[in-house]
Amino acid sequence: MKKSVFFLSVLLSVAINAQKQEKDPEISEYVKLVSKDSLKANIEKFVSFGTRHTMSSTTDQEKGIGAARSWVLSKFRNYSKNSGGRMEFYLQNEDLQPDGKRINKVTNLGNAIALLKGTDPSDKRIVIISGHLDSRVSEVMNSTDYAPGANDDGSGVAAVIESARVLSKSKFPMSILFVAVSGEEQGLLGAKMLADKAKKENWEIEAVLNNDMIGNNSFDAPKNDGVPKLRVFSEGLSAFETEKSAAKIRNFGLENDGNARQLARYVKEIGEKYVKNIDIKLIYRNDRFLRGGDHTPFVNHGFTAVRLTDYYENYDHQHQDIRTENNKKYGDLIEFMDFDYLKTNTAVNVAVLANLAKSTPQPLNVLMDVKELSNSTKLSWEKPNSGKVKGYQVLIRETSSPVWTERIFTTEASITIPLSKDNYLFAVESISTSGNQSLPVIPKVSR
Questions:
Q1: Which of 174, 173, 191 is nearest to 182 (CA)?
Q2: Is the four-CA dihedral 58, 63, 68, 74 of positive or negative sign?
Q3: What is the pLDDT of residues 27-64, one digit of tens each?
Q4: Three-class SS of residue 259?
Q5: DSSP per-residue string spanning 237-249
Q6: What SS3 state is found at 136?
Q7: Under CATH, which number does the domain 34-358 receive?
Q8: What is the Cα 276 distance to its own chain's centre?
């Protein structure tokens, strides 16, 4: 008994030390490079297009969605010069026919994309950051009236562009795809077009960070609300092949441990590690109540995706005609933006993108031995197929905890922990030689 208690105390001591890992200085530098002025300039440019409605002009050089997506591509073209030839940029587009829903005329749908290729040719993983370029007023089919879309979703696309600028010189083993999708307000059309392509071509998408409205907080938060908050929405039970796995999920008590939930925890951990003055809230829904976002088409294809968004939504400045009524201004105007908040949230994205892109792939064949009843838990795994691994971290939390609370580092491919699998949940992540962790893997049962 004394031996077991001693062993547990040693393990927990190791776990505490593992939690105190130093920040990666390269990632810290990237975070510092995020510029409030650059973000503001991006928003000002978006607002200048008048409207970015999906069915607005694609031929006008100064107004409409076409001019906006061309400008985004010009920014990607400029940043590609920093990449040593590793950043490609292009427009993914197709003509949509009227659908009797939210497309009432032939419309050229286009996603502005930049792909920063990873340096390891054997690492096929991609991490995606997205925001939607289109904007709207009160009437979703109104494609002509002034629709500045400063926060919805100029803020998300501004973060995409700024992340591309900051990370364009980086040399990560994993690839990063930066995308400004269109058609969100008309039914997530651009995101679906991209997700369908990824599914058809078997892209190895590690994670999708969808940013939609991340730049309006101080105008909406109650006074003395404390540290600014950022919501991360994640699904619980995957919509993808749930029927096949539901019984196993229920039996193992993993309703809160799908891939999206692991990514959300990762965003909170890495974001709060590198970025000051932000409280990242894990919201246990795929999106806001009865509403959707551009990560959903990826989720529906089985990819790991989450949504990052303001904690407080102000509906006076979202989906509104520009007007003044009873001395109150309505509309998504730039004057209601909080650029310090947008800078902070963009820095969260940069930190998560960089940490993921510097990581090795996840450990393989992670198993929990259940051949015998025991108050200890034996885990085993195999090294990933690519990348240089420094070691592994075993993550531990009580079943009621929303986040991982303990970590044990090991260079071995197995470990026995004197904690009962009845009372705790476990996961394993790879640690690269640069100290960056992969997304966690929940063990499968080995009999």
A1: 191
A2: positive
A3: 999 999 999 999 999 999 999 999 999 999 999 999 99
A4: helix
A5: S-SSSHHHHHHHH
A6: coil
A7: 3.40.630.10
A8: 19
- Name the CATH superfamily for 2-23+360-446: Immunoglobulins (2.60.40.10)
Q: What is the mean pLDDT of the chain?
A: 93
Radius of gyration of the chain (CA): 23
The tens digit of pLDDT for each residue in 154-190 reads 999 999 999 999 999 999 999 999 999 999 999 999 9
Taking CA atoms, 174 is separated from 196, 306, 358, in Å, by: 21, 19, 7
* C-alpha dihedral sign at 379, 380, 385, 388: positive
- Pull the structure tokens for residue 69: 């997506």
Question: Alpha carbon of 435 to those of 23, 61, 172, 267: distances in Å?
Answer: 9, 47, 13, 17
Q: Which position has the token pair 């310090």?
A: 340
Phi and psi at 31, nearest 5°, equal: -60, -40
Going by C-alpha positions, the residue among 162, 291, 156 that lies closest to residue 230 is 156
Name the nearest CA neighbour of 194 among 294, 78, 302. 294
Contact (Cβ atoms closer than 8 angstroms) between residue 355 and residue 434 = no
Structure token pair of residue 156: 């998300």
Instruction: Please give the Cα distance from 101 to 356 (Å, whole number).
Output: 38
Question: Which sequence spans correspond to the domains of the chain?
Answer: 2-23+360-446, 34-358
